[in-house]
Amino acid sequence: MANFLFVLSQDDNEKATRCFQFAKIAHSKGHSVNIFMIDGGVLWANNERDFTEKTGTGDCPNDYFPYLVENEVPFGV
């Protein structure tokens, strides 16, 4: 098992989507995962944020974020 730290540092929908997607993939494969939000990335900690905005590939943060919350993946802000 490996340890992963994903750092989200920008208020960008596509970057947040990929961060949450890769964290979900790593966690679902049994790895230890932590997510840390810094700089503009802290805006994703707002529970009123729209997580349904689609990226160019058609997915969105809400496709991955609920899994992370349900599985208690640690978030630092």
- Please state the average pLDDT score: 97
How many beta-strand runs?
3
Judged by helices, strands and strand pairing, the structural class is alpha/beta
Question: Which parts are unreliable, with pLDDT below 50 for 5 consecutive residues or more?
Answer: none
Distance separating the two termini: 25 Å
Sketch the topology as an H/E string, one letter per element: EHEHE
- Helicity, in percent? 25-40%
Shape: globular
**CA gyration radius, whole angstroms:** 12 Å
Domains (count)? 1
Strand content: 15-25%
Oligomeric state of shown chains:
single chain
The major pleated sheet works out as: 3 strands, parallel
Number of helices: 2
- Lateral arrangement of strands in the main beta sheet: 1-2-3
Describe the structure.
The chain is α/β, with parallel strands linked by helices. The protein has one domain (7-76). The protein is built from 2 helices and 3 strands. The chain has helices at residues 13-28, 65-70, and strands at 3-8, 32-37, 75-76. It has a 3-stranded parallel beta sheet, covered by helices on one side. Strand 1, helix 1 (13-28) and strand 2 (32-37) form a beta-alpha-beta unit. The longest helix is centred in the first third of the chain and has 16 residues, at 13-28. The relative contact order is 0.27. The model has no long low-confidence stretch (mean pLDDT 97).
